[in-house]
# Entry
Amino acid sequence: MALENDTLAPDFELANQFGELVRLSQFRGRSAVALVFFPLAFSGTCTGELCELRDNLSLFTDDQVTLVGISVDSKHTLRAWAEQEQYGFQLLADFWPHGQVAKEYGVFLQEKGFANRATFLIDQQGIIRESFITAPGEARSLAAYRAALEELRQPA
# Structure
């Protein structure tokens, strides 16, 4: 079961595509975070989704929201994919222990071995303000991101 809105987002530390360690708590007081779980790098639906986010990055940066992708892929796979697709945001490797962060957020699909498509909008205090998950195989819409960002703009 995915974490509910208005709950404290679990802190974690994962390597990004460059091997740098990133903690969710490092954004507290500095920036809201859009945490975007996706199944696998280089897959068609995931590439389409993240390219759409890349092409609309100003939706996030205009609101001072840091966009962060996360999957069970290795940092090496994520780096190759990010370079190929020219992603201008961090991708985090939930590689080992396998899918641990996705499990903490309640979006790991045990039978498939990867995370579902799930997005959590986390405010500057570390509280999940909005979230949405699509059915397996279904891409998230840009409209869903716009609606979630609108909710984030509302006072708590």
